[in-house]
Specification:
Blueprint (H helix, E strand, L loop, with lengths): L4 E5 L11 E5 L11 H13 L1 E4 L2 E4 L3 E5 L5 H9 L3 E6 L2 H13 L6 E5 L9 E7 L2 H6 L1 H6 L1 E13 L3 H8 L4 E9 L2 E8 L1
Parallel strand pairs: 1-2, 5-6, 5-8, 6-7, 8-9
Antiparallel strand pairs: 3-4, 9-11, 10-11
């Protein structure tokens, strides 16, 4: 996994090393074991843009976050463990909703994650961080809604995008009030990071 952050399936044993953050996940029937490149890309982007570990100690730069299409809840659990006080994690799949609730309890962060079965149209709040690790076509289709859910100065992390789709998704998201920050690649996949002007 990415440096210092370990995603461990419940059926495997792992002894944490100093300063490692271990997340236990039982995906059940939901999507997301933490091993896919798109998940690694999201975690890397979160480490680079939302969480700082410097001379002043570890600190999180988001007061709240939205995990779009949460799957098994890996990213929501990570955000809570990094110190984001409140994350809303939603999915249209009831199996994913139950898996996320179970994994939040397993990792003792259920008090910081609000799990909903919903579409993005049902989310009224705005957030300092929005993460969407879903298919590129779905991401582009909800561009305006994702932008609307982001606070000014907030960070949007998009993943689930094949490298050859990256330029098209980037163009789509530069039409509004978003500024492109960077792209990160892993295998055949890319993640795009934007900030809201």
């Amino acid at each position: 996994m990415t440096k210092g952050i370990i995603i461990k399936p419940t059926w495997e044993s792992y002894k944490a090393k100093d300063k490692e953050l271990v997340i236990e996940i039982d995906p059940g029937m939901a999507f997301g074991t933490g091993l896919h490149a798109t998940t690694r890309l999201c975690i890397d982007a979160i480490r680079r843009h939302v969480w700082r570990n410097d001379l002043f100690g570890a600190r999180v730069l988001a007061h709240n976050a939205l995990d779009v299409g949460t799957g098994s809840g890996i990213l929501a659990v990570l955000l809570a463990k990094l110190g984001v006080p409140r994350t809303v994690a939603f999915d249209v799949d009831p199996v994913a909703v139950e898996a996320t609730k179970a994994n939040a309890k397993l990792n003792k962060v259920a008090d910081r994650i609000e799990v909903r079965q919903a579409t993005i149209g049902k989310i009224a709040e705005s957030f300092d961080l929005v993460v969407a690790n879903i298919l590129a076509g779905t991401i582009v289709g909800m561009r305006e809604q994702l932008e609307d859910r982001l606070n000014p100065g907030g960070v949007l992390i998009l993943s689930g995008i094949l490298k050859q789709q990256g330029a098209e998704v980037k163009r789509a998201f530069q039409k509004g009030k978003l500024e492109f920050v960077e792209s990160i690649n892993d295998e055949d996949w890319t993640s795009l990071v934007f900030s809201k002007i």
